[in-house]
Amino acid sequence: MNRKTVLNVALFLVAVYLLVPLLIMLSGRSDFYYTLTSVALLSIASAGVWLTFSIGRINIGQGAYALAGGYVSAILVTQFELNFWLTLPLAGIFCALLSVCIGLPILRLRGVYFAMVTLVLTEVMRLTALALPVTQGAKGITSIPLPQALEIFGFRLIPDFSSLENPKLAFYLMAVSMMIVAYGVVWRLVNSRLGHLCRSLQQNEELSASIGVNTAYLRVVTYAISSCFGGIAGASFVAISQSVYPSSFQVADSVNFMLNCFLGGLGYVFGPMLGTLMLYFGWDLLFTAGKYQMLIFSSLLIILMLALPNGVLSLLERNKERS
Fold first, then answer.
1. Which residues make Cβ contacts (< 8 Å) with residue 91, sequence separation at least 6?
2. What is the pLDDT of residues 152-165, one digit of tens each?
3. Cβ contacts of 106 within 8 Å, gap of 6 or more
4. Domains of the chain (ranges plus CATH)?
């Protein structure tokens, strides 16, 4: 990384870890912690969707893996009394393996065909959660305990959330830290050999295959990583809400995950993060519009995508060209 990138990362860390908590404390609006926690976790799931764009696939099924990850964590915590922090990687691994089974046949499809197949995944997962005894049907799984302490070699890395006076701040710090790690992983993948191969796959799969690139392997691996992000985000949401239901993640959530990527910018690693922030707060700001909220919101999204087809972050490129 160059000096400018390091400086930007440092400023971002200072903002999320020091400036934001300070501003919330001064305002007395601790409810903002939950809002920003939700944005951070949603952006993690959106980052996974962004990864599938790198192989030329439009993924509208991330909500299915978020729901699956949420149930995996809830079942392991409530029925097997496993520490929540151990269920996070297990939820991600489960979703990754599940995506391999689903992705092997459908990743051969392209364009709208793959998108339409993934669109039904969230509804299929919801119906599965309704039908299986282990998920307790429509009642869902409730009374999930707050995350317990995490200790390694007798050293407490993470405190017991139930013993904290303000668990909202703890959840915010947890979500932000997870978001930073997730985007660090995505940035590293994009700038690795795997990322370069994925970009070649996005441009022309036949040409990539003709020069010896294992296109099937790349598609499956990228889709598995994408779904892993969705599962971890879903498991984290369950810890915050202390419950999970078949309707916790719906088709609309999967669509929003995709919109976050378009809004922020498909050509930018941090596009989903900005897109999630704008989409989440944009919807809330239009709440006063009442029955016209959806109409205004949809119209603004269409105008933004027409005016900025490469996302909001493309404005930075335009400013560079002008200067």
1. 68, 69, 70, 72, 73, 76, 231, 232, 234, 235
2. 888 888 999 999 98
3. 114, 117, 118
4. 30-322 (1.10.3470)
